[in-house]
């Protein structure tokens, strides 16, 4: 909401926020769902260009924007997408089209109108794989008059971003909008061996929308988006490295160290992620009658991810991994939205329809031993990695002599190749009815019934001398796979309007996440995993207080999960399997406040939650453990901080004739959390708090402004990812959150 106008005659009033959380346009306060909204203006003011920045504005949201495999979590549910056979737990909707892969997220964050974050299972209306919630991205729509905007941002180390959009009405019945972004991010991690920055990103993307209104009762919307992104990869840094392994790595580069907080790494392979995405949609809306609308939504999307990684994270040429991933999907949805009279002189509103999905994906992974493999094998670090620590030393003087003999590097062409391809077909019917059976009461009943079939083939083949195959315990095989499963996602709810400005709801929903196949596996066993289900009960209160200047939304929830799908990094690959049971419960709230001070607005959010395994007696153990299993029953889930909180005051003061001074800051806090499934103490990230701020000057009518921004001003050090090292025994590698970054932006609107 604008707060630029001084001397208001009455208290400022919050603008109503319209959302599509129930597949129809409703105000935020009407929706009996835990939903938070971040509008595009707030994202631009805060300088949030990557999806991960949204997590600092919404309670109970975890979002890691990894270039290869973004991870999304809500209320303790998170999905690592390093194994592409595991589908997201959070649904992703872009301009009303459902997308099956989280990899699409980093490519569409330009010309954003709003982001809706729905927390808790949403299967009734949004289908499978929404067991944790849904992210809805709405981009700028064509306008009936000529409008344009341009934003230019320049940051440290030659970082720059140019983003713009223009809407042009061609005729009264044809509106157009084009948007683009050209973004160069300088990268956060120095690779001293290659003398380059890791995570340096170049992205160009464009979107075109057309809106036609051939009659008063019909609207046709078409959209196309394309994106090309290239990132130097990865930002991994050695962490808590075994002394022998660190000593070996330093023989290749003396600058090697294992401090994961110094924005420094050293490896020899110039890795990358090259990602290309395309999105298309055609949406036809037709008003059959005053009380009934029908929409046909046709979507197509495709994604290519070409990845090269240095898996030993050192200057030694030990293990190279390449992966080529392709995904293509088509979706069709027919949706009816309407209202009707109901018994006892009451009314009801309903939404329902049919949905179909077809998808194809394939991935080829190649693991190859490098030229230093033989040299490493006879070193103390190599002997420890191969399970024979101390062997050369046990030979006494002869061992010392052997260790002193240089082993020349050579490429034996040794490796393992894996190819996985999958076809999916899914259909569903869904419906939800809201019956306003009394003046202040309503009830919701919903149901989704679906069926899905997946067929796949996994092939593994080693080559060369077979050393890589032995290390990976790879089996040469070609295995056809297939599975069918049914989805049933009901919902029941009751709402009560306490006052015209305070409403409450109580709901029970069942979420469903489909099963699948281990798409990255080198053994012909445990290739399938089963669906997971979650039963969620929540109580929510939504309120607009103080003459509509204060909005407070509050939720209490409890979710019980059975057959929870989990991912464990075994040092080579990311295995997917089903744990037993888990329970997620907590409270969360967010607020918007136009304070009595005409120049001050405050946004805030917080959550206190507990995400634990109810039963998990056969969990994997940390690296170096003598046991093969541990009991994690009653222990926390990974990437599930007990507390999240943020507060974002904005000060806006007019001065002179038509200028406005703005100052805003955002304080965000995340509680203690573990970053790995096995809850290894080395992967525990203690609570931390980030401080961001921006200061700017601009025209009071919003035509232009200049803003200086700073992120992580106190240079807080924290890790976002930790895993057991792929080759060095009793060692780890990690990624850190970005340290302080400063940028200057110019924004103009016409």
- Per DSSP E runs of 2 or more residues, the count of β-strands stands at 44
Q: What does the oligomeric state look like here? A: single chain
- Count of separate DSSP helical elements: 8
- Uncertain runs: 1-9, 395-406
Describe the overall structure.
There is one protein chain. With 750 residues, this protein is mainly β. The chain has eight helices and 44 strands. It has a 22-stranded antiparallel barrel. It has a five-stranded mixed sheet with strand order 3-9-10-7-8. Strand 14 (189-191) and strand 15 (196-198) form a beta hairpin.
List keywords for this structure.
44 strands; 750 residues; mainly beta; disordered N terminus; five-stranded mixed sheet; single chain
Brief write-up:
By secondary structure, the protein is mainly beta. The chain contains eight helices and 44 strands.
Blueprint (SSEs and pairs):
Blueprint: E1 18-19, E2 26-27, E3 35-39, H1 40-46, E4 61-64, E5 71-74, E6 77-79, E7 90-94, E8 97-99, E9 112-119, H2 123-126, E10 133-139, E11 147-155, E12 160-171, E13 174-185, E14 189-191, E15 196-198, E16 201-215, E17 218-232, E18 237-239, H3 243-252, E19 264-265, E20 272-289, E21 292-310, E22 319-342, E23 346-369, H4 373-377, H5 380-385, H6 391-394, H7 397-404, E24 415-436, E25 441-463, H8 467-472, E26 477-499, E27 502-513, E28 516-517, E29 528-529, E30 532-545, E31 550-562, E32 565-569, E33 574-578, E34 581-594, E35 600-615, E36 643-655, E37 659-670, E38 673-674, E39 684-685, E40 688-699, E41 704-711, E42 719-724, E43 732-736, E44 741-749
Parallel strand pairs: 7-10, 14-19
Antiparallel strand pairs: 1-2, 3-9, 4-5, 5-6, 7-8, 9-10, 11-12, 11-44, 12-13, 13-16, 14-15, 16-17, 17-20, 18-43, 20-21, 21-22, 22-23, 23-24, 24-25, 25-26, 26-27, 27-30, 28-29, 30-31, 31-34, 32-33, 34-35, 35-36, 36-37, 37-40, 38-39, 40-41, 41-44, 42-43
